[in-house]
Design a protein that fits this description.
With about 650 residues, the chain is mainly α. The chain contains 20 helices and 14 strands.
C-alpha cells in the first residue's frame, strides 16, 4: 500500500517544520474552510479620470504599467487551492512535481514593476490627519479613518477627478491620492477590504524619487507574507497582489487556465494583459475541491517552467530587460515591516536550469510594525536591508550537467506534503479499518486456549478485549457520523423531519431508530437468515452447555430485521458480548434484559403477531471466514 494514503508527508519534517499549523493538516482531517475571501479592489480604478499631467507623474513614479492593468475577475477557489500548497517555511508552492514560486522575474514580466532599486521602507503612522493634510492638502473625517489607514472610498470621492485648471500643487495632490488608491487596491491591498495605510504617502512626495524604489520587490514581499498568513489553518482571507498570483498560475500551470480571446501570438506588455476580461469556459463545478484534486494529481506535462521564452522580446521595455538578472537573486524582499526571503535556488527549473537538492533555508524573524507611530523601520531592519543591498552578489547559477534531477525528486518526496486532499476518502478508510478489526476479532475468538499457561491465556484475553473495544468504538463513531449534517439540503431535510416528529413521537421515532440502526450498520457485511418467525425470551439466553460457538439469526415473516444477539449466562473473556454499546434510543442489548424491550419495539413496528417457530443455529466452525459468517448471520456475534 502507498504510504501516502495514510501519511501525506512530510516524512522528514526538517524543512516543513510548521506542518501542524498549516491548512493542509486541517483539510486532511476533514476540516474544510471553503474558498478564501480575496481582497483586491480593482473594479473602480477605471473611474479615476487622470489628466495628461497626472499620467506623466504616475509614469515617473514607476506605476505606468500597473496603471494599465484592468480589473481581472479573481478565481477565489483557484487562489484558495494554491494557498493550500504554499509553504511559508520556504516561500514556495510545494507541488507534486517539485517546488515552484512567484519570482522577481515573474513580477517584472507580469506587471512591469521595478525589481531593482531602493527598498520600500519608511515611517509608520497611527493616525491619518497630519500626513494626509501634508501630502493631500485635506484630512479625512473620522468616519473615513481607522488608526493609520484611510478608506479607499474617501480618496475616490475627493480626488478621482482633477480639475483641468488645477494648480501644479493640486495636480500633485490628486496624483498622490491616485497612487495611494492604486497600490491600496492592488499590490498592497489589505484584509480590511476597503482601507489603505497612509504610510506610503511620503514615498510619493517626490515623483522622481518614487520611481527609484523597487516597487516590484515590495509587491512580492507583500504577496509572500499574505500567502504565508493565508496558509495557516486559522485564516479565512487573503490580500495583496492576487492578480499577479492568478496570472502567474495561468502562465505556469495548466489548471483552471482560461481560453484566450486574444491572439496568443500578439503579446502585450505588461503580460497580465493576455488574460484581460473573462475568457474561461464553464466554471460551475470548479470549487476548491476541484482545483485541489487537480493540483494533487499535477504532472510535469501540466507545467510550463519557462513560459516567457516564447514572448515577443520586442514588447519588453529596455528598463525591464536590464534588471531581469535580479530575478535569480537569492535575497531579502522588503516592504516596510514585511521582510521575506526570495529563494530562486529552490526553483531553478523556472529559469531553464537543472534542480539540485537546495540548501536548508535559514529561519528568519517575521517582524510587525507594532502600534507605535512615527517609527522609522530602517533602524529595526538593518540585517534585512544589508541583505537587499548585496542582492547582486547572490545570483544563483546553473549547476551544469553534473546535477541529477532524480536525486532531487527522491529527496523532495521525503520533505514535502505530497497530498492536501485524501486519495482515499475518510469513509473508505473507516470501512477498511472496520473490516480489518472484524477479521482480527474472528481470528482471536477462534484461538483455543487449551493447553496454554495462565500468562498466555491472559494475553489472548487482552487481545480479544482490545479488538472488541475497537469495534465498539468504531460503531459508535459511525452512529455519530450518521447524525452529522453532510450538506445544506440534508440540514433542511432534517429540520422538516424534526417538526414532524414533534407531532408523532411514538411510532415514528421507533421507525426512525430502526432506520438509523440499519444505516449505522451499513458497511458491515451482515445478512439475516430468513427462517425465524417468532421468538420466545427463554430462547434468547442460553448457557455455554446449550450453545457452543454458535450464532443466532432472526427475521420476521416479512423479512424485516430483528436485531438481537447471542448472550450466555456465563461468558468468559474469550467471547464477544456485544458489538455496539449504544445506538440511538433503540439499542442492541448487552445482555438478555435489553433483548426483550428491543424485540417489543421491532415487533410493534412491523405490525406482526409472532408465534413460536424455529431458530436457525449455525456453528462457527462450519464457516471458513468472517465474510461467510456474515452472509449467514446478519447480527451474529462471533463466539
Amino acid at each position: 500500500m502507498d504510504v501516502y494514503t495514510t501519511n501525506p508527508g512530510p516524512i522528514d519534517a526538517s524543512v516543513l517544520y510548521d506542518q501542524e499549523k498549516h491548512v493542509s493538516s486541517a483539510v486532511w482531517e476533514g476540516q474544510e474552510r471553503g474558498a478564501l475571501r480575496c481582497h483586491e479592489h480593482t473594479s473602480k480604478l477605471d473611474q479615476w479620470m487622470l489628466t495628461s499631467k497626472q499620467i506623466e507623474l504616475v509614469e515617473k513614479s514607476g506605476f505606468g504599467y500597473l496603471r494599465l492593468i484592468p480589473a481581472i475577475s479573481l478565481d477565489n477557489p483557484l487562489i484558495s487551492a494554491l494557498v493550500e500548497r504554499w509553504r511559508r517555511e520556504t516561500n514556495t508552492f510545494h507541488l507534486n512535481v517539485g517546488e515552484m514560486t512567484v519570482t522577481l522575474e515573474d513580477v517584472a514580466y507580469l506587471v512591469g514593476l521595478a525589481i531593482d532599486g531602493e527598498p520600500v521602507i519608511g515611517v509608520t503612522y497611527t493616525t491619518c490627519d497630519s500626513v494626509c493634510e501634508k501630502f493631500l492638502g485635506k484630512a479625512p473625517e473620522s468616519g473615513y479613518t481607522s488608526g493609520g489607514m484611510v478608506k479607499l472610498s474617501w480618496l475616490k470621492e475627493y480626488f478621482s477627478q482633477c480639475p483641468e485648471d488645477a494648480s501644479a500643487e493640486d495636480v500633485e495632490r490628486h496624483t498622490r491620492a491616485y497612487l495611494l488608491y492604486l497600490v491600496g487596491s492592488t499590490i498592497f491591498s489589505t484584509t480590511t477590504g476597503n482601507k489603505v495605510p497612509v504610510m506610503y504617502l511620503p514615498l510619493f512626495e517626490n515623483f522622481d524619487q518614487a520611481g527609484k524604489y523597487a516597487w516590484g520587490a515590495a509587491a512580492l514581499s507583500f504577496l509572500y507574507r499574505a500567502l504565508g498568513n493565508a496558509s495557516l489553518k486559522s485564516q479565512s482571507t487573503i490580500s495583496g497582489g492576487l492578480t499577479i498570483l492568478q496570472c502567474w498560475s495561468y502562465y505556469h500551470l495548466n489548471v483552471g487556465r482560461p481560453r484566450l480571446t486574444l491572439d496568443p501570438l500578439h503579446d502585450f506588455f505588461p503580460l497580465v494583459l493576455r488574460w484581460k476580461g473573462k475568457q474561461s469556459g464553464p466554471t460551475t463545478n470548479r470549487d476548491v475541491t476541484f482545483y485541489r484534486k487537480a493540483l494533487d494529481s499535477l504532472k510535469t506535462t501540466d507545467v510550463e517552467w519557462c513560459p516567457y521564452r516564447n514572448v515577443d522580446n520586442t514588447v519588453i521595455p529596455d528598463e525591464i530587460k536590464r534588471t531581469l538578472i535580479l530575478g535569480r537573486s537569492k535575497t531579502m524582499l522588503i516592504c516596510y515591516d514585511k521582510a521575506e526571503r526570495h529563494l530562486p535556488d529552490r526553483c531553478l527549473r523556472q529559469y531553464g536550469m537543472r534542480q539540485p537538492i537546495p540548501r536548508n533555508v535559514q529561519r528568519w524573524e517575521r517582524k510587525s510594525r507594532g502600534v507605535d507611530g512615527g517609527v522609522d523601520l530602517s533602524g529595526k531592519m538593518e540585517s534585512e536591508l544589508n541583505e537587499w543591498m548585496e542582492r547582486r552578489l547572490h545570483i544563483v547559477q546553473d549547476g551544469g550537467d553534473g546535477v541529477d534531477d532524480s536525486e532531487y525528486i527522491q529527496w523532495y518526496l521525503k520533505i514535502t506534503r505530497k497530498f492536501v486532499g485524501r486519495p482515499i476518502p475518510i469513509s473508505s478508510e473507516f470501512q477498511r479499518m472496520n473490516a480489518a478489526l472484524r477479521d482480527i476479532a474472528y481470528i482471536a475468538d477462534r484461538i483455543s486456549t487449551h493447553g496454554m499457561d495462565t500468562e498466555q491465556i491472559q494475553s489472548i484475553s487482552r487481545i480479544r478485549s482490545i479488538v472488541h473495544e475497537g469495534l465498539r468504538d468504531h460503531i459508535e463513531e459511525i452512529a455519530l457520523a450518521s447524525t452529522t449534517p453532510e450538506n445544506e439540503s440534508g440540514k433542511r431535510g432534517r429540520g422538516k423531519e424534526k417538526v414532524r416528529r414533534k407531532n408523532n413521537m411514538g411510532k415514528r421515532k421507533r421507525k426512525d431508530d430502526l432506520e438509523n440502526f440499519n444505516a449505522i450498520c451499513e458497511g458491515i457485511p451482515i445478512h439475516m437468515s430468513p427462517t425465524v418467525n417468532v421468538i420466545d425470551n427463554s430462547h434468547l439466553c442460553l448457557t455455554d452447555n446449550e450453545v457452543d460457538q454458535s450464532q443466532l439469526c432472526l427475521t420476521t415473516s416479512e423479512g424485516d430485521v430483528i436485531p438481537t444477539q447471542l448472550c450466555s449466562n456465563d461468558v468468559d473473556e474469550s467471547q464477544l458480548c456485544h458489538v455496539v454499546s449504544e445506538i440511538g434510543d433503540s439499542q442492541l442489548c448487552d445482555m438478555v434484559n435489553g433483548v426483550d424491550s428491543q424485540f417489543c419495539d421491532v415487533v410493534r413496528e412491523s405490525d406482526q403477531k409472532p408465534s413460536l417457530d424455529t431458530i436457525e443455529v449455525i456453528t462457527q466452525s462450519a464457516l471458513e471466514t468472517s465474510e461467510d459468517i456474515a452472509q449467514k448471520n446478519d447480527f451474529g456475534v462471533l463466539a
